[in-house]
Amino acid sequence: MTHGRFAPSPTGDLHLGNLRTALIAWLSARHAGGAFTVRMEDLDRVTSSTALAARQLDDLAALGIDWDGEVVFQSERFDRYRAAIDRLTDLGLTYQCFCTRREILEAAQAPHGGEVTYPGTCRDLGAAQRRERTERLAPGRQPAIRLRSHGEVITFTDTVLGEVSGTVDDVVLQRNDGVPAYNLAVVVDDDAQGIDEVVRGDDLATSTPRQIHLARLLGLRVPIHAHVPLVLGGDGERLAKRHGAVTRADLAAQGIGPDALRSQLAVSIGLAEPDEPVSAAALVERFTWDRLPRSPWTAPHHPGSDGSHT
Ligand code: GLU
Description:
Blueprint: E1 3-6, H1 16-31, E2 35-40, H2 50-63, E3 72-73, H3 78-90, E4 94-97, H4 101-108, H5 127-135, E5 144-147, E6 153-158, E7 162-167, E8 172-174, H6 182-192, E9 197-201, H7 208-217, E10 224-228, E11 231-232, H8 248-253, H9 258-268, H10 280-286, E12 297-298
Parallel strand pairs: 1-2, 1-9, 2-3, 9-10, 11-12
Antiparallel strand pairs: 4-5, 5-8, 6-7
Helix pairs in contact: 1-10, 6-7
Glutamic acid (GLU) binds next to loops.
């Protein structure tokens, strides 16, 4: 049975792009008669809040998206993530990393903005070097824990993107503030929750080879992946707050209620005619991946309530 999920980070209101991804994930699972889980990825307790999580759940419910079982919060599951890191350590597949972000950028001579590959500075430190770097750690910091990768190339077949390949890097498993890293937690939870279909934005497609590799190392199941195209604002940039009314609350303030919003999203995924009223149940019936446009969707422009839209 298909078991899909939506796993937002409760660090802000969901915008049209997140809502569209959630809708697609839910439709795919429910069309197949499968289960659907919502998981709150609140690993970072500084930027996440339960109030935002509640608002996000309200937004999903307003569109007609329902879920099975309790919503799981990652902040309550650190033990599981640490146990997984310990397993990798027992396999000799981790190392401590003392580098600051600035050191990594300098060593990698990476242009700003691009994805930075860790240059491997801490991979083979001797005991004395490790001691010396431990002493220099800033107060409250601990070494990050990285995966010891070996240039593994992982290929997977994505429902939307087709065949995708990527090389695994020395991905961070635990940050230098002691918080388990997203790439590790997501793999542990998708397996623990029995998820077999991961639908998410295609900005995460480059992380998938790492996640598949981690799952295999840990003996966990590898789900099917479907990375959906991003949603853009009118200027061709990735949709963001500055593009005006992009959340359900913003749209409601302009008189665009959840039914109109659902219709708009349904049109964008090829399942409804413009302005056609359509229930969530009707969409479940109609859903097919074949209709999903393979290029980014430019969201209709609704100026923000303060008039700012640049
Ligand atoms: N929590 C991640 C985000 O909100 C998504 C993780 C995932 O779907 O794998 O960007």
